[in-house]
Design goal:
The N and C termini lie far apart (78 Å). By secondary structure, the protein is of the alpha+beta class. A hairpin with a 5-residue loop joins strand 6 and strand 7. Helices cover 23% and strands 35% of the residues. The longest helix has 27 residues. The protein is elongated and about 90 Å long.
Length: 172
């Protein structure tokens, strides 16, 4: 019985010594004082009003008309949702294969000059949606290429820092 009492007393002393050491180290670190106060939060309404914005539209009816062949034309709409004119807006369209066994990426670029506030512009890309050619050394099942999905990602950026991104997945 005496051994259990000594063991319990020793464990309690070790616990108190460890807790004291941690408290001492925490106070030496120069932690946050009451005068520092909480971290100031930005007012989201002010941040959104002053930030230039771009709006991208990728209408579904235009996507539905696309076929798996080269020379496809895809029109998308970009609008200046801010209060200041953009001298230019750069648009990038990336078409990526959904087939991870044969990854394929094609990129297209266009620029819109002088986009006034609340002014929409339609940009047309000529894209290649043809399936990749099968590798000569690899046996591909018939129709495998036609089952691959295409992923379209459109990015619009203005020199003033405004940007927008739209993504669409084309069914096989």
């Amino acid at each position: 019985m005496r051994g259990v009492a000594l063991w319990t007393l020793g464990a309690a002393v070790a616990f108190l010594a460890t807790a004291g050491a941690f408290l001492l180290l925490a106070n030496l670190g120069g932690g946050l004082t009451v005068s520092d106060g909480p971290i100031p939060q930005a007012d989201p309404s002010k941040a959104q009003d002053s930030k230039p914005t771009l709006v991208l539209e990728l209408p579904e009816d235009r996507l539905e008309g696309l076929e798996r062949k080269p020379g496809q034309r895809l029109a998308l709409d970009v609008e200046n949702g801010g209060d200041e004119e953009f001298p230019s807006v750069d648009l990038t369209l990336d078409v990526t294969s959904g087939d991870t066994a044969q990854p394929r990426k094609r990129s297209y670029r266009e620029t819109v000059e002088q986009l006034a506030p609340n002014e929409p512009a339609t940009v047309e890309f000529e894209i290649d949606l043809s399936p990749p050619l099968p590798a000569a050394s690899r046996e591909a099942p018939a129709g495998a290429d036609s089952q691959s999905r295409e992923i379209l990602e459109v990015r619009a950026t203005a020199p003033e820092g405004a940007s927008a991104v739209k993504t669409a997945v084309l069914a096989p």
